[in-house]
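ok, trying the design again with the full structure, not the truncated one.
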């Protein structure tokens, strides 16, 4: 019954807690094996539902009623509703920015300014600066990231490495920005102050980002663009034939970045940017709109912009490569991403509601005898929470609540926990295809996290550095004592 006492619920055993995870891993592996790149367009969702079914059966065995589990699913899905609405709005934004010439203009100037030899490093650096300024990895990927993917395609560079550079830079800037929601969430959960948390994160994020830029620099040195200078000039000419190109086309981008930097709410900011893109299309791309509408009437223009918001655009320039870059977007393009997230959140909600995740974490604590083991256990728990709950906020909040007392017992400063939560909870979220962040990046950059994850160097180097610090005692702060300042502590 809904009002059943918590004492009536059985605590799950360790094998019960592990079983749904094992089912999920096997089902996802089978999905990828059978369907390859198409696995995220339906098969992975079914794998998540099957694993959720196993978890529900375990819940029934442990005296949870369907009403209890259903309530947990509703609560779990509600956590992701804000993100789902933003994802739909981003789809509309991409559609109207393709129509307005905003993205084509960024591609045009990118082809002109970026050299293939340092393109990857420059992409990571540009995305890092933008994300630091606005505090959003999602907005950075959906704007600058989309344009950089287009530039890479124009130069014949690797889309997987480019996406890895975009994600690395976007997550470094997001992680180090006081405007970021996760950067505010982690210290709040751990019980420390925002700017102290950011300064302390620099010890792991700084070296990881520097190493990342160096790796991308050397990757660029060994790359030869498959597109010649003549081909790039031809692509730029085709862009100017299809669009009116100019710096004024970047006004929607500037407005969006300003609104994000001034901490306006994400959903209205993104959708306003989409609507502004539609207005810009009518003002600056009348020839293209007339071509797409079949007439030059106001009703025809309205219809084209409306369809760009809903279904995106399809542009025909005569170049197959360019057409693929300039066609897409719309809310409908994000529906599969929404489907994936809903399925993942339902699974994660069941696992959390019936106590399976908590049981796994309690089992982990038994092995975490040293500080290095504790930090490593926290990092892997955050990663596991990203896999199981499919949401970076859950991967920060749940481990944060469960490990906080243990960190306090061992005399560790709260910043150690807050930094560790971000080093894994925030950063590994983009590497998991069914996580809200991984699904968003897949829908926005049009490439699976399984393909770009090996090149998202920053996202997996940072946890490794955190583990190294944990076992060596470097920059591991202790709580204040009369003769012990945490700012100077190193062990």
């Amino acid at each position: 019954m809904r009002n059943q006492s918590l004492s009536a619920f059985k605590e799950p055993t360790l094998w019960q807690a592990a079983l749904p995870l094992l089912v999920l891993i096997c089902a996802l592996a089978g999905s990828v094996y059978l369907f390859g790149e198409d696995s995220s367009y339906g098969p992975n969702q079914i794998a998540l539902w099957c694993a959720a079914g196993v978890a529900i059966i375990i819940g029934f065995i442990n005296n949870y009623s369907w009403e209890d589990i259903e309530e947990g699913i509703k609560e779990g899905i509600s956590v992701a509703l804000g993100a789902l609405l933003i994802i739909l709005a981003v789809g509309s934004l991409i559609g109207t920015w393709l129509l307005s010439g905003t993205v084509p203009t960024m591609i045009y100037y990118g082809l002109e300014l970026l050299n293939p030899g340092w393109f990857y490093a420059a992409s990571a650096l540009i995305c890092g600066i933008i994300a630091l300024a606005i505090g959003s990895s999602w907005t950075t990927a959906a704007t600058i990231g989309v344009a950089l993917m287009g530039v890479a395609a124009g130069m014949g560079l690797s889309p997987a490495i480019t996406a890895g550079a975009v994600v690395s830079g976007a997550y470094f800037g997001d992680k180090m920005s006081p405007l970021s929601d996760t950067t505010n969430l982690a210290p709040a959960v751990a019980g420390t102050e925002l700017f102290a948390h950011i300064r302390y994160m620099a010890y792991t994020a700084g070296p990881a980002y520097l190493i990342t830029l160096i790796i991308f620099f050397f990757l660029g040195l060994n790359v030869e663009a498959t597109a010649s200078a003549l081909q790039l000039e031809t692509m730029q000419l085709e862009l100017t034939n299809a669009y009116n190109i100019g710096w004024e086309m970047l006004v929607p981008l500037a407005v969006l970045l300003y609104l994000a930097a001034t901490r306006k709410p994400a959903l209205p900011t993104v959708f306003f940017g989409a609507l502004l893109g539609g207005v810009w299309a009518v003002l600056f791309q009348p020839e293209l709109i007339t071509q797409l509408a079949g007439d030059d009437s106001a009703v025809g223009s309205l219809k084209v912009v409306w369809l760009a918001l809903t279904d995106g655009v399809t542009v025909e320039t005569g170049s197959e490569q360019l057409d693929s870059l300039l066609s897409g977007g719309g809310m409908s393009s994000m529906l599969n991403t929404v489907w994936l997230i809903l399925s993942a959140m339902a699974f994660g909600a069941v696992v959390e509601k019936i106590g399976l995740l908590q049981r796994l974490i309690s089992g982990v604590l038994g092995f975490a005898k040293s500080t290095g083991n504790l930090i490593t256990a926290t990092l892997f728990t955050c990663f596991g929470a990203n896999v199981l709950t499919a949401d970076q906020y859950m991967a920060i909040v749940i481990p944060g609540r469960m490990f906080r007392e243990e960190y306090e017992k061992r005399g560790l400063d709260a910043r150690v926990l807050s930094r560790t939560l971000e080093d894994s909870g925030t950063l590994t979220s983009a590497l998991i295809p069914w996580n809200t962040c991984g699904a968003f990046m897949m829908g926005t950059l049009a490439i699976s996290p399984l393909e770009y994850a090996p090149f998202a160097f920053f996202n997996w180097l940072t946890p490794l550095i955190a583990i190294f610090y944990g076992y060596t005692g470097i920059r591991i702060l202790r709580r204040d004592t009369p003769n012990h300042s945490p700012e100077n502590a190193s062990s």
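Keeping the full-length input from now on. Residues 481-491 have pLDDT under 50 and may be disordered.
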